[in-house]
Amino acid sequence: MEPLASKIRPEDLKGFFGQEHLVGEGKPLSIAIKNKHLFSFILWGPPGSGKTTLARIYARSIDAKIYELSAVSAGKGDVKKIISEGGLFSKILFLDEIHRFNKAQQDFLLPYVERGDIALIGATTENPSFEVIPALLSRCRVFTLNPISDEDMKKIIKRTGFKTDKNAEDWLVKMAGGDARQAITTLENAYELYKKITVENLKNTLQSRFLKYDKKGEEHYNTISAFIKSMRAGQEDPALYYLARMVDSGEDPKFIARRMVIFASEDIGLAQPTALVVANAVFRAVEIIGLPECAINLAHGAAYLSRCKKDRSSYNAYLKATEDVRNYGNLPIPLNLRNPETKLMKELGYGKGYEKYSKDSFFPKELKDRKYFTS
């Protein structure tokens, strides 16, 4: 049985709600569709923000044939089959979860995109700067999608045809958190179970679902939070438990490793500077080795980071510095710290009086007595 989210998916921009910065009048995707311009791009945004829908609308509107693959299960053979298919039509490869294509697979895809054998539309919830190889990224425009706004979510809920009172609608909008697919699916399941949409029935529907680890939902964020907090508290055993939960449930190991690199500077910092070296080494090992063996590297890193002494002074100091930047703007840099690149600059006093090891403040004068480090 076809899910409701698929049944009510709009076929053109007139029925598409949200992402006005991309599809509104005079915006890039609406212009491309109007001009029937074929090009490669990546849609980066949270779950349920319309990435697949936009890709299909774009392909249909420019009279191109779209081939849909999931990077989780697709391989080189699937791409070759698409390339080899004959016909005079324009071809678009829609690659969902493009961040799950490894470097070798992306390298394989690159020449076909370069030659124009296919136009690539990648969809991802992860930052393409980290997950897509530079050569492929440089040949694609990146469009960032936002979570669906409350106003647009209400329009989507109305399209389902289910009658909801204001309380149920407001609760559903808040629960969905910008994810249209989750809102539609919850509505559909509530109606199938109870034949009436109320706040209580919506809540019961969510509670009755079998929840394993949802890489795009609340459990994803709860588990990584528990993992980080366990390492912060120096409790390596719970940290390893939450790590095992994530790995066993199919979490992207690079996501875990990236959080560990951040943790090494944010929470350990100056107490043990080599923690950043270890965390980076773990990330690199994850890139090279992949699952399942890279779980060993993740465990090594998690135990090490948990046992390190903690010092957030550099991170906290940076936050204070950022606050001053935002409060004061770009204050004039003292003349003695400026680089006298030209004769005129030198005559104006750039670099004059600069001493390498001076004890005088190098701050702008408005911040002369600032202290960000407290230890």
From TrEMBL:
<dbReference type="InterPro" id="IPR003959">
    <property type="entry name" value="ATPase_AAA_core"/>
</dbReference>
<keyword id="KW-0547">Nucleotide-binding</keyword>
<dbReference type="Pfam" id="PF16193">
    <property type="entry name" value="AAA_assoc_2"/>
</dbReference>
<dbReference type="InterPro" id="IPR047854">
    <property type="entry name" value="RFC_lid"/>
</dbReference>
<dbReference type="Pfam" id="PF00004">
    <property type="entry name" value="AAA"/>
</dbReference>
<dbReference type="GO" id="GO:0000731">
    <property type="term" value="P:DNA synthesis involved in DNA repair"/>
</dbReference>
<dbReference type="InterPro" id="IPR021886">
    <property type="entry name" value="MgsA_C"/>
</dbReference>
<dbReference type="InterPro" id="IPR027417">
    <property type="entry name" value="P-loop_NTPase"/>
</dbReference>
<dbReference type="GO" id="GO:0017116">
    <property type="term" value="F:single-stranded DNA helicase activity"/>
</dbReference>
<keyword id="KW-0235">DNA replication</keyword>
<dbReference type="InterPro" id="IPR003593">
    <property type="entry name" value="AAA+_ATPase"/>
</dbReference>
<comment type="similarity">
    <text>Belongs to the AAA ATPase family. RarA/MGS1/WRNIP1 subfamily.</text>
</comment>
<keyword id="KW-0067">ATP-binding</keyword>
<protein>
    <submittedName>
        <fullName>AAA family ATPase</fullName>
    </submittedName>
</protein>
<dbReference type="GO" id="GO:0003677">
    <property type="term" value="F:DNA binding"/>
</dbReference>
<comment type="function">
    <text>DNA-dependent ATPase that plays important roles in cellular responses to stalled DNA replication processes.</text>
</comment>
<dbReference type="GO" id="GO:0006261">
    <property type="term" value="P:DNA-templated DNA replication"/>
</dbReference>
<dbReference type="InterPro" id="IPR008921">
    <property type="entry name" value="DNA_pol3_clamp-load_cplx_C"/>
</dbReference>
<dbReference type="GO" id="GO:0016887">
    <property type="term" value="F:ATP hydrolysis activity"/>
</dbReference>
<feature type="domain" description="AAA+ ATPase">
    <location>
        <begin position="37"/>
        <end position="152"/>
    </location>
</feature>
<dbReference type="InterPro" id="IPR051314">
    <property type="entry name" value="AAA_ATPase_RarA/MGS1/WRNIP1"/>
</dbReference>
<dbReference type="Pfam" id="PF12002">
    <property type="entry name" value="MgsA_C"/>
</dbReference>
<dbReference type="InterPro" id="IPR032423">
    <property type="entry name" value="AAA_assoc_2"/>
</dbReference>
<dbReference type="GO" id="GO:0005524">
    <property type="term" value="F:ATP binding"/>
</dbReference>
<dbReference type="GO" id="GO:0008047">
    <property type="term" value="F:enzyme activator activity"/>
</dbReference>
